[in-house]
Amino acid sequence: MRSILITGAASGIGAGIALELGRAGHHIIVSDLNPDAAGEVARQIREAGGSAEAVALDVTSDESVAATLAAISRPVEVLVNNAGLQHVARLEEFPMARWDFLVQVMLTGVARLTRAVLPGMRERGFGRIVNIGSIHSLVASPFKSAYVAAKHGLVGFSKVIALETADTDITINTICPSYVKTPLVDSQIADQARTRGISEAEVVSQVMLKPMPKGVFIGFDELAGVTAFLISPAARNMTGQTLVLDGGWTVQ
Ligand code: NAD
After folding, report:
1. Which helix (H) or strand (E) holds 12?
2. Which residue among the candidates 99, 143, 147, 249 is catalytic per the annotation?
3. In 24-37, which positions are buried (b, 16+ CB within 10 angstroms) versus exposed (e)?
4. pTM for this one?
5. Please, which residues bridge with residue 75 across strands?
């Protein structure tokens, strides 16, 4: 059983992966900007018989990363880079500070935390890094320039780190889901309805589910299952890869 630090684990996909991997017997370090909500996820894991601790972590801050790594009870064997956010606007109307912030959280923040845990992983001769990318690591949608740029960048970043860690038992891979029903997507439904001038039901059927031939949202169990595979011995030589959970979006 591994000790697994998950960022942005107080909500949505991060919480879903935390709960499932906690049920599987791993020790989960539930980290998030929101420590109270992280504490609640850790409490649920313990209540279900698992092992978990919660910690405040802002991936955009060197100080916060250092404080988190000093505060946790076990070394990080597995890092799940999941924290993220979205902003939907045409580039001309996209505030540059907001653009930069999305890249800070979803790309620079991943580099910051990965950089901080790698020396320990090297010392112990084992590490697994799982990034939560997106279908937008591979294809684009309008009005999401910062998000798509950050998520594409994440794939390039992972390839480089795969090469830099190839001399030891460390892997880094990126899971790329299409839409998963989380608070992040719920808020986009309203934003997109406004930006596109269509109803919220039309955003779900015509924007979100239409490009997915399977026509359903991706589930937390799928994200957790693929993460479990990536940290299993069967995936020890899989590194620098993208694993695409898109209901057939990109094969059309
Ligand atoms: P969510 O909004 O439910 O959860 C995101 C979490 O990240 C929140 O708890 C938030 O507090 C945390 N967070 C934000 N900024 C942070 C920071 N600076 N430091 C630490 N934590 C921070 O979102 P979600 O839908 O679960 O998204 C999780 C990840 O999955 C994101 O990287 C997102 O891009 C990716 N993703 C989501 C979908 C989807 O359809 N929901 C699809 C593809 C990829």
Report:
1. helix 12-23
2. 147
3. bebbbbbbbbebeb
4. 0.96
5. none
